[in-house]
Design a protein that fits this description.
- By secondary structure, the protein is of the alpha/beta class.
- The chain has 2 domains: about 150 residues, Rossmann fold (3-Layer(aba) Sandwich), CATH 3.40.50; about 200 residues, Dihydrodipicolinate Reductase, domain 2, CATH 3.30.360.
- About 40% of the residues lie in helices and about 20% in strands.
- The chain is built from 12 helices and 13 strands.
- An 8-stranded mixed beta sheet has the order 7-8-9-6-10-11-12-13. Strands 3-4-5 form a 3-stranded parallel beta sheet. The chain has a two-stranded parallel sheet with strand order 1-2.
- β4, α5 and β5 form a beta-alpha-beta unit.
- It is globular and about 65 Å long.
- The structure holds NADPH dihydro-nicotinamide-adenine-dinucleotide phosphate and ligand LJPVP2WV.
- NADPH dihydro-nicotinamide-adenine-dinucleotide phosphate binds next to α4.
- This is D-xylose 1-dehydrogenase (NADP(+), D-xylono-1,5-lactone-forming).
- Belongs to the Gfo/Idh/MocA family.
- It catalyses: D-xylose + NADP(+) = D-xylono-1,5-lactone + NADPH + H(+).
- Keywords: Oxidoreductase.
């Protein structure tokens, strides 16, 4: 947030908060930030702050996004949006009521790589269904000039033809996060599906649209936990015949090219296939390998690298967030009913995207035989009540 803000006009980091005021002060000094606070509440009371970036553990996203919205601030909230779907609905309902932007920080989606992928795939088999907001609709690569993504089923096939599968993996090597990391904490809504799987679900939805259901999921628990998944695999199904799979793990033993996390999108259709490497952090190196087959059976493979202007995903994300906030502010200032409705619809669409991703995450956990995650306050209460009921067993689990 600090680096991109130096490159995005009209965005400035004016304040930072930490639970420990001296750390916040030190951070502010290091990064040239005007104000620092020793509590999140104090930052929310600062009238110079227009928008808040919530970069807290998953189980606290909902609580602090709500607090920021109540304080009249726009919100950019880290992924996954909340602990579960119910909480996502509450936060988005509040954002709508207050007329404020509340966007999930899926930074990868604003990078031109995603736009390129969508232009290749162009929602095959998903005619009339909306892709997730934030992605421009374009004609598929290789489609006749003048074709629009929404035109007809033939155009929607893109060069890959009819889709049969889309598989996304986000793999984090086992040496990256120690057991004490927030990602392994039940009371902070941890888990591989939450942390890495949310990208898998979101990218699949962004690329092919529609409303999938989770067909099955299998979790491998993190050490010393009955609740937190160290790895998760899942299968999704759509009304259309294609299938998807997701794979998220904190325990990858990777012999790879050094990229972290390793993130891949793999798509197959009846006329070809696509492999995309490093869609989450494309600025550090990416490729899109496209193989197409003619009816005569000849195959062609092309490799494309997409860097746009060379900026990071975080730059694109902040630019987009600023544009959204400005659109809402301008609509409010204009008093123009049409502009207000348009701004409100955009907020609703954005909110629905986050809610849908959390719905699927809940389904993944349920299908894997684990419960959807809880907001931190509820998870702590649950642990305390378990500790009361089964003191010895819970004590073991907490160590
Ligand atoms: N978009 C992206 O590229 C990335 C997104 N993320 C997301 O950002 C969020 C934070 O992840 P990450 O930065 O790795 O986490 P860290 O553990 O590094 O930071 C979390 C911060 O939350 C604050 N915090 C408040 N309450 C607690 C608590 N009870 N326990 C621990 N920390 C607490 C702490 O700030 P303090 O003590 O200063 O108040 C801490 O510094 C996650 O939701 C994650 O999914 C993470 C990495 C990359
Ligand atoms: O981009 C990311 O990479 C590593 C993950 O653990 C992190 O939370 C994620 O957002």
């Amino acid at each position: 947030m600090v680096w991109p803000s130096r490159r995005v006009a009209q965005a400035e980091v004016v304040a930072v908060a930490a639970r420990d005021g001296s750390r916040a002060k030190e951070y502010a000094k290091q990064h040239g930030i005007a104000s620092s606070y020793g509590s999140y509440e104090a930052l929310l009371a600062d009238p110079d702050v227009d928008a808040v970036y919530v970069g807290l553990p998953n189980g606290l996203h909902g609580q602090w996004a709500r607090a920021a919205l109540e304080a009249g601030k726009h919100v950019l909230c880290e992924k996954p949006f909340t602990a579960n779907e119910e909480e996502a609905r509450e936060v988005q309902a509040l954002a709508r009521k207050r007329g404020l932007v509340c966007r999930e920080a899926f930074h990868y989606r604003e990078h031109p790589l995603m736009e390129h992928l969508q232009s290749v795939l162009c929602s095959p088999g998903a005619a009339g269904k909306a892709a997730a907001p934030g992605l421009a609709r374009r004609a598929p690569v290789g489609a006749p000039a003048g074709t629009n993504a929404g035109d007809d089923q033939a155009a929607l096939g893109g060069v890959l033809g009819r889709l049969s599968a889309i598989d996304v993996a986000v793999l984090i090597p086992k040496w990256v996060f120690g057991g004490a990391n927030i990602r392994f904490q039940e009371t902070l809504a941890g888990g591989a599906a939450m942390d890495a799987g949310c990208y898998c679900l979101h990218s699949i939805r962004s690329l092919i649209g529609g409303k999938p259901q989770v067909e099955s999921a299998t979790a491998t628990l993190a050490p010393n936990s009955q609740v937190v998944d160290g790895s998760m695999r899942g299968a999704l199904r759509w009304d259309d015949p294609h299938r998807s799979s997701i794979r998220a793990t904190f325990t990858a033993s990777l012999q790879h090219d050094g990229l972290f996390p390793t993130s891949t999108i793999s798509v197959r259709g009846d006329k070809g296939s696509l492999q995309c490497s490093n869609f989450i952090m494309p600025v550090f190196g990416n490729f899109v390998r496209l193989t197409t087959r003619t009816e005569a059976g000849d195959t062609t493979t092309t490799t494309t690298r997409v860097y746009g202007s060379g900026e990071s995903t975080y730059y694109y994300q902040l630019s987009r967030f600023v544009r959204d906030v400005q659109a809402v502010q301008e609509a409010a200032a204009s008093g123009d009913a049409g502009a207000l409705v348009a701004a409100s619809n955009a907020l609703a669409e954005e909110g629905a995207d986050s809610i849908e991703n959390m719905r699927l995450l809940d389904q993944v956990y349920t299908a894997a035989g684990l419960a959807p995650r809880l907001p931190s306050a509820l998870a702590i209460m649950r642990q305390l009540s378990l500790a009361k009921a089964q003191p010895q067993e819970t004590a073991t689990r907490l160590t």
